[in-house]
Amino acid sequence: MMESASGHVSIQLTPGQVAHVLREASDTNNLAVVLSGLQGVREALARQPTLLKDPRDSRALVTGLFLLAMLPPDGTYIRAAELAKSLDMSPSSAHRYLNTLVHLGLVEQDPGTRLYRLAT
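Now predict its structure.
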């Protein structure tokens, strides 16, 4: 366990411990639980929209991860247009990605408001 100058405490896990935590979280079928533990990954993805430099990388996969990372971790809803704007993509593209994530059960859409959030 380490404490930073800002007073934040961090705990370093071994790869085996991380795998165990992810397995346990995935057994609950709750993506929000899994992603809530990846705040550092969320922040890195949000800061690096031009992450892809290697042509062998999957642009579609990274875009989907960006969308997941931009969804509020507290379970609140957000508009597709807001996500699109934050990722500098067209609203129709964001909607297409979000539809896929909804069909996979990773994201939920409120039928009344048509807003999106991480699946619970």
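The first strand starts at residue 2 and ends at 3.
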